[in-house]
Amino acid sequence: MAELEVDVVAADGKIWSGHARQVSAPAADGEIGILAGHTPVLSVLRRGEVRVARAGGEVLRWTVGGGFLSVDSDLVTVVVDSVEDATGTQVAH
User: Quick one: CATH architecture of 4-85?
Assistant: First the structure.
C-alpha cells in the first residue's frame, strides 16, 4: 500500500514527521481526508482534531487551533497556529 510522507509543524518547530496511510483534518469547509495519490490541495484549517493513521494501525491525534494543510505528490504538510496533544496539554518544542 502506498504511503504518505507527513509533516506536522507549528511556528516554533516540528511536532511530528513520518509515514502514514491517511491524514484527516478539520478544513474550513468540512472534514478533509487524505490518502496516497490525492490530488494537490491547499486548505485552510479551523479548530479541531488532526488525525494521522500510521500503517500499523496507530492513530496519532492533536487538537489544533487553525492553520493550513498542503498536499503535493504524497507529501502532506500540516502547519498549525497552536496545538495540544490528545490529553489537552499544550505541545512544547
Answer: Sandwich (2.60)
